[in-house]
Amino acid sequence: MSRCHNFSAGPAALPLPVLHELQAALVEFGDTGAGIMEISHRSKPFEAVLASAEARLRRLMAIPDDYVVLFLQGGASLQFYMLALNLLGDEGAAADYVVTGTWASKALQEARRVGDARAAWEGKAVEYRRLPTDQELTVREGARYLHYTTNNTIYGTQFHRTPKVSVPLVADMSSDICSRPVDTAAHDLIYAGAQKNLGPSGVTAVILSPWAQSQSRQTAKALPGGLPAMLDYGVAVDNTSMYNTPNTFGIFALERVLAWLEGQGGLSAMEAVNRQKAERLYAEIDRSGFWRPRADKADRSWMNVAWRLPTEELEARFVKEASAAGLKELKGHRSAGGIRASLYNATGLDAVDALVGFMREFERNNG
Ligand SMILES: Cc1ncc(COP(=O)(O)O)c(C=O)c1O
Question: I want to staple 79 with a disulfide (CB 3.0 to 4.6 A). Which of 8, 110, 191, 291 is the partner?
Fold first, then answer.
């Protein structure tokens, strides 16, 4: 077997022991006599998978008992609209957004379809190199919520604190969920596409506080005919994520990834490794003037490390030669260019060391 060092931004590397478990379960799951994709979502064995996925996520993230956990489809991109519809839809209420990159900007665009949504901070003028302080956020007094993106996958910035504001906090944690402990209870809604730190694409974890649940019910009541069933958090809550057929394989894979995370020692242990991985790579990037880090130091992401080389030609050569050396998916997002190494939970220190070794040699040859 020749698996590469995979720095993909998502779908991304998964832990090898989990892949082996999935491989086996595809053919034969437990004592069902069938594969995991071949059994009913209403069967007892699958219900146990779903319950275990929820229980593990609750333990890992210290989710308060009165919050609900959902596993939905449609990706984080559907949540951009769905959360706004549920939280703002009843009377065109207002919400504020911290625009720290492409995904935050898309979330804001979708909310504008529903209500009075605006930017509480816009980072475009600083090319999304840094994040705002709390003092820089202009949150309106009547805003229903403030939305922010904890980790900016494309520009490589990450909040290393939870913003302190006086309105409910909504977070897109797609690219750093379960990479470190967070103050879950400080948020009213958290969502994340699974395909970076939690499993395969096609499952989205959504966590709702009691306020978010009741606001959603209020919206459904206020709208003539209610909310569309598939876009109604209340319907998903009442049916424990099974109003329709969920992504059974995706939820199973997510459950196995969460079991692996617990086996690693949970999120504090992941934080220690993730910090170490990022520090090693940033130390190399800062070592000489050859590499040009994209993000300001204080706001650098531990998950997506983005940098540039002196010319685009060198960047293309870097990506090509790295790939030939077994270091894959290092090309920056198509909208941002440059180089990006994604270091999610399943990417080990060995991958970072291999990358740093390659970078030293590349600089010797091209610097
Ligand atoms: C921070 C963030 N939010 C949202 C998305 C969109 O996710 P999805 O493809 O699941 O809709 C991405 C995708 O990379 C992302 O990185």
Answer: 191
